[in-house]
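Notes from the 1:1 (GR / supervisor)

We went over the backlog. Supervisor wanted to see one worked example end to end before approving the batch request, so GR pasted a single chain during the call. The sequence is below; no edits were made to it. Supervisor asked that the structure be written out right there so they could see what the output format looks like.
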Amino acid sequence: MRLNFNTTIATQYKSQPQAIRVMTEDWVKNEIFCPNCGNFVNDFKNNSPVADFYCENCHEEYELKSKKDEMGKKIVDGAYSKMIERLNSTNNPSFFFLNYDLQDYRVQNFVVIPKHFFVPEIIEKRKALSENARRAGWVGYNILLQNIPQSGKIFYVKNGN
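Structure output shown during the call:
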């Protein structure tokens, strides 16, 4: 398994977060297999709500979250209502968590958390954005990783190995 990102695919991006998103999604698409059946995963078109990858064989869906720092106790994420809607649906996704070293664009940890560990109780609703904000009233959420048991965190890559 190659642990370095393909940096050449992101040279046209001026925004570092956009470049990282492209590189991490490319890495998953080319290096990761479906933990459910073993086939490679495919990517959804951009901006699919709470879905980045899927398996053509078993139809499982996966959401990718990546960050340069250690995963820690919580991960800041998107729209609260969309996440709760997906978690309560019949096809809620499993999650891929990736943390990387920004110095050498290398994967440090890659974890899958199966969907049955993703329940509304691990989602922390954030305060709505103020009325002065560009998206006033919008409500985000945090994923409370500390509320997921260790048995629900399956490592593909741990500490760079």
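Supervisor's comment: The helical segments are 16-31, 80-87.
Batch request approved.
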